[in-house]
Amino acid sequence: MEKALWNNSWTFWKESNAFSLFQSIPADAKTVDLPHDAMFLEHQDANCVSEGKQGFLPGGTYAKT
Known about the structure:
Number of strands: 3
Largest sheet: 3 strands, antiparallel
Structural class: mainly beta
Distance between the termini: 25 Å
Number of helices: 0
Radius of gyration: 15 Å
């Protein structure tokens, strides 16, 4: 039996258009191991729309492979 690591080496990036189709992996994509929360790479802002409900993080749409 071969051991498979399903949580390692995932690639993700922030989408500029939430409705865009998967085209290609952008040059600024990051490789991470799961579990991972992409919003932690965002900058906190006391004036963001969600306020403290999302930890003052703007959120967004992210893609992964």
